[in-house]
Amino acid sequence: MNSDGTRDARGTHANPVPRPAGSPEMPAAPPPPPLPTGTPGLPPRPDGNAFLSWLRAPRPEAAPGVWRFKHTPRPDEEPEAVPGRQLLGGALIAFLVGWLIWSLLWNGYLGGWWLVPLYAMVPDSWAPPGSYSSVVFSYAWYTIIALVIMVGVGRLGRWGEVWRRYGAPRFRQPQERQVVPPPQEDPAAWPQLREAGAVEAADRLVAEARAGLMRDVDHARIMRAWQGVRSGRHSLATFTGAVVKDGAAACLHPSGERDLPGRLAQHDMVTGQVRLGAAVDDPRNPYAYRGTGLALAPELLATSLLAVGPPGSGKTGGVVWPIAESLCLHALAGRAAVVVVGAAGAGLGPADAYDVVVRIGNPESVYDLDLYGGTTDPDEAAAVLAEALVGDLADPHPGGDSRRSTTVLAQLLGPFRAVHGRFPSVPQLRRLLDGAPGPLGELRKALQDAGQDSLLRELDARERQLGHPGDVGSVLADRVALIDRPAFAGFFDTSGQSRPFSLRALDHPVRVRIDLPERGHADASRILARLVLAQFTASVAVREDRSLFACLVLDDATGVVTPEAVRGIQRLRSANAGTVLTLRTLDDVPRPLRGPLLGATGCRMALSGLTPWDGQDFAEVWGKEWTEARDVTDRQIIADSPAGKAWHALRRVITGHAPTARAVTVRQVERERWSASELAHGVPPGHAVLSLTNVRGEHAPPLLVDLRS
């Protein structure tokens, strides 16, 4: 404050203090930063144009196995292609012929008849000789005649094909233009919801997609929920309320996940396909498949897939994991349930990609495996367990089974469950199968006290068979001893103190990975693999909701293929389920079962490095086809006249060969699609020969596929 009561204006913006003359000017204050457009600390919102472009991309109907995303159909038959040298030579010769004809006409060597139409159509009053108009009419006529000659020789010389083959590709620049279909056909506008009256839900989904908040899994999951509304499993009001409330996050998977932690393969959730590679541009492939992407979908996997190839051929990384990744995405969308079985550390994806991870033999495993598949029926539990324990010892012919082993197990499981209310643990089952007097005596006394006479007869029959020649109880006990090891002491618990996983849960879209302890426990791993396969085939057959696709992916099926397993695989197609099996060689399958196994699987894959005897089995199942064979015969020409002999002698001196006449014979013959030698030596590394069949019976012939493209 000044002495007169006024306020000093120094330092205020309204009346700044004047600077002394010659003092440097102060820099201007920087402008304030722009206001934030989103919540601080969160990443920017994605753009929805990429998702809309993906959703609106064309997916035409195609043959089985063709990657439909932006697919351009090709004709079934290969058009006749003229060799490049012949095509260019013919075009040049046609040009020279046209030039010669024009030169002869212009210079008057062919007369002036070609000018008669000009004189007849143009009177002298229009174009007096020597006038400007006569020159114009004359050169116009010359141009017409030159164009006629050019068109004629161009058609003869195939100039159009020369341009399409060599000229157009150099000037063509790929330009993708987003085409927005009309609202009634635009999948991004959800027309099916609008037709049913769920306009508010459709508007919410459109807004979410445009804002970049929707993913491909969200779209597939909501479409799956909408199918439930149309089939009557869900009400329209419930569906509309969930979508209006949660938008793209509606109808979530029980895990709450909307995508996998990472993806390695290309997926198209609209068609449900996963891209494995591309069909090679090879004459052995049908023309419609050459150069196209090759993909698998649940409708193909429902016929089961068998892949055979030596270690390092790409079974796990190029086939098993892409399929497992695709099925996990389908599970998040509510479309599928998947169980992936393999050795620990086999590269079957991170644990975060699964809902349940069973690490058998690992003390840190959260989940256990139910030895009896979650059933309460002793006979069913005995059948599944007998298949797992001694299924590989049954008669390998297609009619073989393990009914005797099933009967022995049922004679023990039924009485034990009636007494204890549960099935026996692994140590208890081993003692019962060994025929130890203590456990059998205790079980008999408990049955007598409960008055279970029918079950006592079962136990009496088991005791009479003990020690007799041919009794399978000792064999079963030896096999149970393989999983009654200290490494598995905390597993297969039946007392209810652990968290056992049962394949009865395949009624829900669950993602399961089971790690087998192959190191040091190879025989136990084979038993457990057979157990999972037997439980899978038994569980999917009694599901209530068969619209949910169920798939078992078995990374190594060595020792798993049994007569009962082949019969179970044959029944999966009608239950909307399938299996994916890989083998190092068909020698891991008993000889009588190789043909039935290849016949039970609709999709068969032979990878590079196959042995000739394995290739022979594939060649037989793929059969033969009619093809055109060309036989070329060179016949020596003998001259009779002196002039002809002199000419032949001159030709022999120049060419070094006797004059011959070539005869070509074309005939139809039946040959193998792929021979055993071609499969063993003609498949490059990183490639495979794959045949496909879908549930409707449509099939694709054996195709040479590059798994790395």
Question: Could you please describe the fold and organization of this structure?
Answer:
There is one protein chain. The termini are far apart. The chain is elongated, with a radius of gyration of 39 Å. The protein contains 23 helices and 16 strands. Strands 1, 2, 3, 4, 5, 6, 9, 10, 11, 12, 15 and 16 form a twelve-stranded mixed β-sheet that branches. With 709 residues, the protein is of the alpha/beta class. The protein has helices spanning 49-56, 84-106, 116-121, 132-157, 159-171, 191-195, 199-210, 216-231, 236-246, 298-301, 315-332, 378-390, 403-420, 426-434, 437-450, 453-465, 473-483, 522-540, 563-572, 591-600, 612-622, 642-655, 676-681; strands at residues 266-268, 273-279, 293-296, 305-308, 336-343, 356-359, 368-369, 500-501, 511-516, 549-554, 577-583, 603-607, 624-636, 660-672, 687-693, 699-706. Residues 1-11 have a biased composition (Basic and acidic residues). The chain crosses the membrane at residues 92-116, 136-156. This is ATP-binding protein. Residues 1-50 are annotated as: Disordered.
